[in-house]
Design brief:
Blueprint (H helix, E strand, L loop, with lengths): L1 E10 L2 E11 L4 E5 L6 H8 L7 E6 L3 E4 L12 H6 L5 H14 L4 H20 L2 H14 L4 H4 L8 H15 L3 E5 L7 H13 L3 E5 L3 H7 L2 E6 L4 E5 L3 H37 L5 H16 L26 E10 L2 E11 L4 E5 L6 H9 L6 E6 L5 E4 L12 H8 L5 H10 L16 H14 L4 E5 L7 H13 L3 E5 L3 H7 L3 E4 L4 E4 L2 H9 L1
Parallel strand pairs: 3-7, 3-8, 5-6, 6-7, 12-16, 12-17, 14-15, 15-16
Antiparallel strand pairs: 1-2, 1-4, 8-9, 10-11, 10-13, 17-18
Bound molecules: adenosine-5'-triphosphate (ATP) and magnesium ion.
Magnesium ion binds next to helix 1.
């Protein structure tokens, strides 16, 4: 149970919400929604006890399992399996068991006997705490989140950002926490895992807050919706499921628009009257009062502020280049004994559109990183054609320098642009005023996505390499990005499991990983997108 009273949250000087009170009880499954940067992550961090509110109180009972939006760095030497098991304090026991097992294989009988004794002791403790069953349960959860045995044996530092996040999610689901706070849990999941997660969350009997842009997840799990309205700094609470919430929201918005129009009309009439009366000395006071009343009427209405605007995006006019700006021959990659893919060939023609499909772990991000030149292939090479200019959008925003400000990040990617040009582009991506001086590290998930895309835009690239560019975006911003993608005339290599994104790209060709088979795009591939 979590109980919140009179909560006030700020980000720097900006007020995010004020006077917010609610409770999360057993069985409450809350969908938390609101525009990018509205303060959803900030709120869940505070609920998880990882941030302090400007004012108000948060009281919680029972365990809380919190999945942050960004993969956290913890002890990266820890094995993935131990990280998951640590949620129920089982990691130490299993580690000791494995140690004892290893020593039991020793040639020295003394060591062997000692280890045997120790093993029995630890095992009976382990058994009495439901150890093996729990371990199996953890294994099942992990495997449903596309984390096979071999991954679980690896230290966290060898895992990709997406895998690490799945480990964190597995840990929370395994923990049996009374209340779960999940910030965009589907971001790094494949379709099968998402379906499984939906079912899992449906069965969950505790409390839940989930932030997600996955509509189906919201539809199937949520029985309440909290809408964080950044304009009014409040949370509107809807005690209903997702479908009814959407209808209700629409009705509310219509009512508000009507209210606004009415008030504007009335205020206009009052103003006119006041202006007419002002001319006469005897009526000057009455005129003034009337004008004041009109002002008050308008002030009570909600303004549509900057946060409701959406970036009017355009990707760059591509710089001129040769007929085939990029080719890749014979690319292959293995990690240790694990072969990710072999012999992938790809020629990116000027203005062509390619989509890369493959299940989780098939190497899509790896391939894109190679094309971008940030990772070396084991064999083969990526060749730049005449005039090649790459714009790389990385899934984890690792192209951003989190210690430097929004403006500095832009200057680095567009050294030839002057200050006005840089600020203009930032403005069209909704960074204005003080926003440009924020360190990139404090930006919200959606804001980071916007900045990373802005840096791509500034580069006048002719080959865009886009890795899941719609993750984290609110629906309005997503539509803008897709519009820009549709209009862009340069070449695009896209990795995405967002069907809408692939539709917007209107690809000519598809590369299937891990086999590296290339084919002309056809409708039959569209179905694969959400699976990939
Ligand atoms: N230290 C800080 N200084 C200034 N602004 C900050 C700071 N920390 C966070 N912010 C701002 O607070 C706002 C709320 O961020 P938050 O991460 O809570 O948004 P969100 O609703 O989770 O958005 P998204 O949907 O993009 O994940 C953002 O505009 C962010 O840039
Ligand atoms: Mg967030």
């Amino acid at each position: 149970m979590i109980s919140v009273s009179n909560l006030e949250l700020r980000a720097g000087a900006r007020l995010l919400m004020d006077g917010v009170s609610f409770r999360i009880d057993k069985g409450d499954k809350i969908g938390l929604v609101g525009r990018n940067g509205a303060g959803k992550t900030t709120l869940t961090r505070v609920l998880a006890g990882q941030g302090t509110p400007a004012a108000g109180e948060v009281v919680s009972n029972g365990d809380i399992g919190y999945l942050p939006q960004d993969p956290r760095t913890g002890d990266l030497e820890q094995l993935a399996r131990d990280r998951i098991l640590s949620a129920r304090d089982l990691d130490t026991a299993t580690r000791k068991l494995r140690q004892a097992e290893a020593e039991m294989a020793s040639d020295d009988p003394a060591v062997r006997d000692k280890a045997m004794g120790r093993y029995n002791r630890i095992e009976s403790e382990f058994l009495s705490s439901g150890g093996y069953a729990a371990e199996a349960e953890a294994g099942a959860i992990a495997s449903n989140l596309a984390l096979p045995e071999r991954i679980l044996e690896q230290p966290l530092k060898t895992l990709s950002g997406g895998q690490r996040r799945r480990v964190e999610l597995a840990r929370i689901l395994f923990s049996g926490a009374d209340t779960m706070l999940l910030d965009e849990p589907t971001n790094h999941l494949d379709a099968d895992s998402i379906v499984w997660l939906r079912e899992f969350l449906k069965q969950h009997t505790g409390g839940l807050i989930v932030i997600s842009h996955d509509v189906e997840l919201m539809e199937s799990t949520v029985n309440k919706v909290f809408y964080l309205d950044a304009n009014r700094s409040v949370i509107d609470i809807y005690n209903m499921n997702w479908k009814r919430y959407q209808q209700q929201r629409e009705t509310d918005e219509r009512a508000r628009r009507r209210e606004r129009a009415n008030a504007e009309k009335k205020a206009g009439v009052l103003m006119d009257q006041a202006n007419k009366m002002r001319a006469k000395a005897t009526k000057a006071v009455a005129a003034q009062n009337m004008a004041k009343r009109a002002d008050r009427m308008l002030a009570g209405l909600e303004e549509v502020r900057a946060t409701d605007r959406v970036a009017a995006l355009r990707f760059p006019e591509p710089a001129p280049c040769g007929k085939v700006p990029m080719t890749a021959d014979d690319l292959s990659k293995s990690y240790g004994s694990l072969e990710i893919f072999t012999d992938v060939d790809l020629a990116v023609d000027r203005g062509s559109r390619v989509v890369i499909l493959g299940l989780n772990g098939a190497g899509k991000t790896t391939l894109l990183r190679m094309l971008a030149g940030v990772e070396q292939p084991d064999t083969g090479e990526v060749k730049a054609g005449h005039g090649l200019k790459i714009g790389y959008y990385a899934q984890e925003h690792e192209t951003l320098d989190t210690g430097r400000t929004v403006l500095e990040n832009m200057r680095t990617s567009a050294p030839d642009m002057n200050d006005t040009e840089v600020r203009n582009i930032l403005g069209s991506f909704l960074f204005s005023g003080d926003d440009v001086d924020k360190p990139a590290g404090v930006l919200s998930g959606g804001e980071k996505t916007r900045l990373a895309l802005a840096t791509v835009v500034a580069s006048s690239a002719n080959v865009l390499l886009l890795d899941e560019p719609t993750n984290n975006l609110d629906p309005a911003s997503r539509d803008e990005i897709l519009g820009a993608l549709r209009r862009y005339t340069g070449a695009v290599v896209l990795v995405s499991h967002d069907e809408g994104a692939v539709e917007a790209l209107n690809p000519e060709r598809v590369v299937l990983l891990p086999d590296g088979v290339e084919d002309l795009w056809g409708d039959e591939y569209q179905e694969l997108v959400s699976l990939a």
